[in-house]
Amino acid sequence: MTATGPFHADQDDAGQRLDVRLAARLELPRNQIRQWIQQGAVQVNGKKPKPSTALSVGDLIRWQRPEPPVDSRVQPQEGPLEILLEDSEVIVLTKPAGMAVHPGAGRPDGTLVNYLLARFPEIAGVGGPGRPGIVHRLDIDTTGVMVIARTAAAYQSLSRDFAERRVKKHYQAIAYGTPQKASGVIDLAIGRHRQDRKKMAVIPQGRPSRTLYRCIDHGEGVCRLELDLETGRTHQIRVHLKAIHHPLVGDPIYGEARWKDWPRKRQQALASFVRPALHAWRLAFRHPADGDIKRFEAPTPEDMKQLWQRVTGRPWH
User: Fold this and answer.
1) Which of 2, 63, 111, 123 is the 20 to 30 Å CA partner of 141?
2) Residue 74's domain spans which residues?
3) CA quadruple 299, 302, 307, 309: dihedral positive or negative?
4) Neighbours of 124 (CB within 10 A)
5) What is the pLDDT of residues 197-211, one digit of tens each?
6) Which tens digits make up the pLDDT trace of 298-313?
7) Does residue 228 share a domain with residue 87?
8) Among 40, 92, 83, which residue's Cα sits nearest to residue 288?
9) Is-catalytic flag, 139?
10) 143-149 and 278-286: which strand pairing?
11) Is 230 a residue whose pLDDT tops 50?
12) Among 13, 19, 59, 139, which one carries the catalytic annotation?
């Protein structure tokens, strides 16, 4: 039964850890209770305890649910969220095109984290300032699956797994041309562009970066690719595909207007596609609570399906 107020430890609690018994009583994650204890929001017999404090019969346990810290840089804002999963540790969702992950220069609101804070205010104190809950990101016009940390422990676990390349990220894309090899590895270091500091580029002194690709279909000057990221550099897929002369259709930074000399019908379809044709299709990660592998998929967006059909005359399968 969920506890609703201060309580005295009984025989079942005796000898048990405070964080374990309080988590059971409140039906909350143990790591969340541990955070409360460390923040001084829990008392045992009027004193500040440790999470590992062993309880005795008659101990009086009091707690006060901490208010999440306020980050003035990001304000809650009602907005659309396409949730695939929400539990006590994580939120998994599909990000649409045109939505930035967090506020930045010239974009103070209307971002994913603004909408997340309105629905999940407890993430306000999770992770880095201005980016509550964010353990990875997608470019503003890239669609697809993202996982958000809901607790500090989940943030630490997921951040570590991303850094250690344990998270599996699979993308779909439409690019120009047809690779000579149906599948392969792009192993080229990426760093900041020497002249344009807003762009990334393949440079010898860059950070090691690996992208695996498979050509699923091709025709009429374009190809469908599936890509797996072994590293997670900024703009990695976009830069790597540009480097092997198969830039993404619609990419305003790394793309090309190859359509200009093509038949009018294809010209119109390609010229009117004004975002990188890139979709974060599948995501697999270890759940922070139990270590089980969780797999999620976001269906291919309709604009990419329609683009493929308009250019090639074939449906997206």
Assistant:
1) 123
2) 67-163
3) positive
4) 19
5) 789 999 999 999 999
6) 999 999 999 999 999 9
7) no
8) 92
9) yes
10) parallel
11) yes
12) 139
